Amino acid sequence: MASRFTLAGILIPLIVFGYLALEVQGAIRRVPGGGGGMGRRRMTTPAPTKPPPGPVGPPVPVTPTQPIRRRIPILPPAERWDKIARQQGPHTCPREELLDDPEIHYHRAWTGGSLCGRRTVVKVDCCFGYGRMPGAPGCPMAKPLTSLMGTAKLAGAGDFVELHETTGLKDALAAANYNALTLLAPTDRAMKEIPQEILESLKSSGQQNLTNYREGPPSLLFHLIAGRVDLKTLPPNSLIPTLFADQPVRFNVFPNGLVTADCVPIVQGSLESLEGVVHTIQSPLHSLLSKGESVGGYSQVPSRLSSLVDTVARHPNLRRFSAVLSHAQRTSASPMLTHSQVHLRQSTTPAALKPITLFAPTNDAFDILPVEFLQSVLYNQEALTALISNHLVDGVMCSAMIGFGGSQGGPRPMGPMAGTGPNRGPFRKPQHIIKTVIGNVFQATCEHKSMGNESDVSHSNSTTDSAMNTTIDHTNETEEKVRGKLKAKASGDKVKSSNVFMIGDALIIKSDIMALDGVIHIIDRVLVPKRARSLSQIAKELDLSILLSLLPNTGLQSALVGRGSLTLFAPSDKAFKALPNSTLEYYYKNPQEARILLLSHMTSGRYLSGNLIDNQLMHSRYPGRDLRVKVYRGSKMIENGKLVHYDEEGSNGVLHVVDQVLMPSEESILDYLRNQGNYTRFLEALSKTSPSLLDLIDSSKMEKDDKSSNLKDHQFTVFAVTDEDMNWNYDFADPSETQYTLPNDAAINNIMRHHVIPGVTWTKIVEKNGFYPLQTLSNGTEEEGPTDSVILRRVANGETVSAGNAVVIDEGDSGIQQSNIQCTNGVVHRVKELIHISNPYHGIHSG
């Protein structure tokens, strides 16, 4: 049977679909943010209502009716996974484990998906002490509580409990009828890290029948705390005394959810028992890892009531650093010394101390540094303060915090980029920014290495710019010798840990050494800040090779290396290469002239760019040559040199890089124009103005008449026109086609005042496609602001600069500089024609 299509059968569906499409579009328009493709809900503020009629009062600010996006707070990893686990039912908890080693796990998912470049996975299971019931969501079945040691066994710390039983400490604690206890129990895997010598000593010397628990092994008592320590109520940083002579353990709660005890991550915390609470930890505390003096048959625990300074002093591999700290203490140069000994001097409680993290260089790390550098730092209080402060970080920075986050790590980059930037492999390493107390920033990284691969933890001979060997000369033989020692030490440490931690280019040889007022990480090189380096070393870093090559014959090397305080305006290599070859050769052949030139770039004292003011005069170190500062919007100038790199503070001063060699000017503006010989008509026109602009730029006449007080110290910018380009009639493009005649006095005054501008302005201050207005003179001088402005403009290609309608000629046909000519009383720019129109850009508005 053939189907029949009627016109109505076709039109009606089309009309219905069209109507529905219009409704959908209208709905999208009515929903804020609709149709944007992001699917993000937004709410808007209501439109302002019309005010009721009445007397008009002062204007009331109206809140803009722009849409406000609703921000969803981003939870830390641990809180986010806790929330996900709770959604599965009661008493469900996350368990995060390494994908390639599930035995390493945590019962709070704090790593953010990676630990030292190793991927982690999160599973949801019953919380400790709870079980599942058939047909019920979550884990509603509560298991009965057990003893403190029994709970530790169930949590996977059976070997640690067995050690308590062997030494008799378990029975002594039970007989003492002690109040609630907190047990820090290393897991069975963690117990394998304890040296066999210490384990055998505990088992063989153990007293089976202790009359008092205090007679027990100090290393085990250090894992016991009186009272219940609930991790949920802990402050971010706290010192809690243990049962061993009240020696404290430092607990830290980090923003990502990680909780540590003496920088050891807690695997499973707050496990309730009949006699207290158990926290299982990833590694034994230091009392079980180091052997002290034997007293009463047991190895004694090193005192934890020591400051950072005292802990450094006792370490044999930190004697050089300890000597630096001692010298700083005698000269009051170290902020850490005051901090770390405040509890000894003021008898304050340890809880009142603000902890810090100290990165302590080894003795071998100091051997890499030249003796001259160390001597210059030790006898410069500010440099010594900067050196020590560059190794300090506020707060406790445990090594575990360096390893969390990021994605799967690739191979460790070697060569120039080692340890300083993103991994160039297919995956990136976890990187964390560490800021020292003086504001320097380092990238801290962590990588997991296979056991026994010594080359993985050794440094590359080619290092980054932040390393000392790029700024201080020393032999490769010395560094290779030192690196060989460090390599052996680092590979020895890898028997205990397969994670390699670095801060910048410094390898952390030993981490998490606890002190009363912070934590110490031992590193294999000195973190030398620029503030502790001499100006000569900073110049090497900035590759100012031509400047440094001029120093040896001038006798000024000591000025850039020794003590004192100076400011150096250092020309870049590009600035020196812009000089004629004959000029540069002249300075190489004439050391005395080179000395005068370099002294003209120095001034006594420290002058940071932020403290420079307009028209400031600084006396250079060569008598009679002053340096004038000009401040513009977005740039600063020293004479004709623009600051292109600034505020490099060193131990003996400040270095600024300028884009021009500061050559002294010998001519005034008038002398320069007369000596050129092709500005006769321009000078004649200046003499016809009333008052005379020619007298204004005549420095000798102005000094005689003492008229400089209202004209910015008699400094001018002159836009000069050569005789062949003088054209008083703007309608004619070529002045050679007409006979040259001067116009009337009014026309001369109106045009020529566009050519003499008070103050000094260099064309280099105008950025690409930018405009810069210059105040002109009106009837000689005007203090209250411009009646007219000449607009400087640089086009988008950055090459051409114009002043009003006239193009500024940078170089003539012979290649000789024609603009930015420095004179004793200002600057001269050659322009292609007279400035008839000072502002041809009527559409621009100042902000």
Calculate Rg over CA atoms.
38 Å
Low-confidence stretches: 27-66, 294-299, 339-352, 406-429, 452-497, 707-712, 779-786
State the end-to-end distance.
79 Å
How many extended strands?
39
Fold and architecture overview:
- This protein has 847 residues and is α+β, with helices and mostly antiparallel strands.
- Helices cover 27% and strands 22% of the residues.
- The chain has 28 helices and 39 strands.
- The strands form eight sheets. Strands 32, 33, 34, 35, 36, 37, 38 and 39 form an eight-stranded mixed β-sheet that branches. A seven-stranded mixed β-sheet has the order 10-9-15-14-13-12-11.
- Strand 14 (264-272) and strand 15 form a beta hairpin.
- Helix 3 runs antiparallel to helix 4, helix 9 (308-314) crosses helix 10 (319-331) and helix 10 packs across helix 15 (381-389).
- It is elongated, with a radius of gyration of 38 Å.
What descriptors fit this protein?
elongated; single chain; seven-stranded mixed sheet; 847 residues; alpha+beta; eight-stranded mixed sheet
Short description:
With 847 residues, the protein is an alpha+beta fold. The longest helix is centred in the first third of the chain and has 24 residues, at 7-30.
